[in-house]
Write a structure and sequence with these properties.
Pfam families: Ferrochelatase. InterPro entries: Ferrochelatase (IPR001015), Ferrochelatase_AS (IPR019772), Ferrochelatase_C (IPR033644), Ferrochelatase_N (IPR033659). It is a peripheral membrane protein. With 411 residues, the protein is of the alpha/beta class. It has helices at 8-16, 34-43, 73-82, 92-113, 120-138, 158-168, 187-201, 219-233, 255-258, 264-278, 303-312, 330-348, 363-379, 397-407, and strands spanning 57-63, 145-151, 172-177, 208-212, 245-251, 285-290, 317-322, 352-355. The protein is built from 14 helices and 8 strands. Strand 7, helix 12 and strand 8 form a beta-alpha-beta unit. Helix 8 (219-233) crosses helix 10 and helix 11 (303-312) runs parallel beside helix 12. It is globular and about 60 Å long.
């Protein structure tokens, strides 16, 4: 995620290095099992939207996506490393295929460990289905509502979803990011894809577009996180519970992106602050950052270094909270659950480590999604005030064109 182009030789060295993790037996105190991830995908089927009436309002649920099968991994990585909004690289058209090919076996092994693929499409479909059912009741004047999934790096791609919405004759389209906290590298990239779809065809959209581009402090989102934290704290030994350190873990960003003025770090911090307020600051906590890629400086402290440092100082009861993700995927099921809560925790001598459950099928969270869309439709706003403001040191001209595209929509 972000700009790692300043040292391409070092980047190539890192992606070719064999640094796969050794297998480690599941620690008895950890809440999740990799087999459970596969069982979840088997139990929760993607249901078709059963609505005979022509949909009037389309909600495009934007996310990065993840490969559903091991065979999908290479193309997922190729699209990811080709995205200049996410990872600008020198000679990108040549270097991206090289990196994708080299990394595919390692990433396939990680997906194999969590059941053979990402559950993110399944969870997004479940969330979307529940959301539109609630919306039909909350907002009959904009019904029927239909959700669409738009992923950046796997099918259904964002552009494919927009095309389907146009074919369906949608009148009112909402680009609804599934990243609660805005970053130019994530939500920004998805919105750019929508703009590029129309710009490439030199045709005005038939639909009236608007976007829910961030929602880091929505009350129901905060309540969901707080509820999941309380549930997990209750599973710690009673004598240890008050001393558990809560580690809010979010995907990191390169400092080059942060220093341009990307609002993501402060928006993640706002989510953490609201959650701790709801918990009455019951426990010590830190905001930490995971998933660094490449050799350049990234936002810290990193989640793994924090776990090591806390253990060295005698803090050996830890609760991991994925604070920037709305469902399980590789960064929760493998990075947090296996790399950190299994392998690293065993190496460091952690006494108790747990991971708060992801939002997934939480009915209160699905209600939050519906509430967000309902309020947005009633507001008649095309976007948040923040979206109109470009990063002070922005280097991507497409960002300005995308912001202008949404600002000019006549609702």
């Amino acid at each position: 995620m972000g700009d790692i182009s300043q040292n391409p030789k070092e980047l190539m060295r890192l992606v070719t290095k064999n640094n796969s993790n050794k297998m480690c037996p599941r620690a008895p105190w950890h809440w999740h099992s990799t087999s459970a991830a596969a069982e979840q995908r088997a139990d929760v089927k993607e249901k078709p939207q059963l609505n005979a009436r022509k949909p009037k309002t389309g909600i495009l649920m934007l996310n990065m996506g993840g490969p559903e099968t091991l065979d999908d991994v290479h193309d997922f990585l190729l699209r990811l490393f080709t995205d200049k909004d996410l990872i600008p690289l020198p000679a990108q058209s040549k270097l991206a295929p090289f990196i994708a090919k080299r990394r595919t076996p390692k990433i396939q092994e990680q997906y194999h460990r969590i059941g053979g693929g990402s559950p993110i499409k399944m969870w997004t479909a479940k969330q979307g289905d529940g959301m539109v059912k609630l919306l039909d009741e909350l907002s009959p004047e904009t019904a029927p509502h239909k959700f669409y999934i738009g992923f950046r790096y796997v099918h259904p791609l964002t552009e494919e979803a927009v095309e389907e919405m146009e074919r369906d004759g949608i009148e009112r389209a909402v680009a609804f990011t599934q990243y609660p906290q805005y970053s130019c590298s994530t939500t920004g990239s998805s919105l750019n894809a929508i703009y590029r779809y129309y710009n490439g065809r030199r045709a005005a959209p038939k639909m009236k577009w608007s976007t829910i581009d961030r929602w880091p402090t929505h009350p129901l989102l905060i309540q969901c996180f707080a509820d999941h934290i309380r549930q997990e704290l209750d599973r710690f030994p009673s004598k240890k519970r008050d001393d558990v350190v809560i580690l809010f873990s979010a995907h990191s960003l390169p400092m080059s992106v942060v220093n341009r003025g990307d609002p993501y770090p402060q928006e993640v911090g706002a989510t953490v602050q609201r959650v701790m307020e709801m918990l009455n600051f019951s426990n010590p906590y830190r905001l930490v950052w995971q998933s660094k890629v490449g050799p350049m400086p990234w936002l810290g402290p990193s989640t793994d270094d924090t776990i090591k440092g806390l253990c060295e100082r005698g803090n050996k009861n830890l609760l991991l909270v994925p604070i920037a993700f709305t469902s399980d995927h590789i960064e929760t099921l493998h990075e947090l659950d296996i790399e950190y809560a299994q392998i690293l925790a065993n190496e460091c001598g952690v006494e108790n480590i747990r991971r708060a459950e992801s939002l997934n099928g939480n009915q209160l969270f699905i209600k939050a999604l519906a509430d967000l869309v309902d309020a947005h439709l009633k507001s008649a706003e095309t976007s948040s005030k923040q979206l109109s403001l470009r990063c002070p040191l922005c280097v991507n001209p497409i960002c300005g064109e995308t912001k202008a595209f949404f600002a000019k929509q006549n609702l």
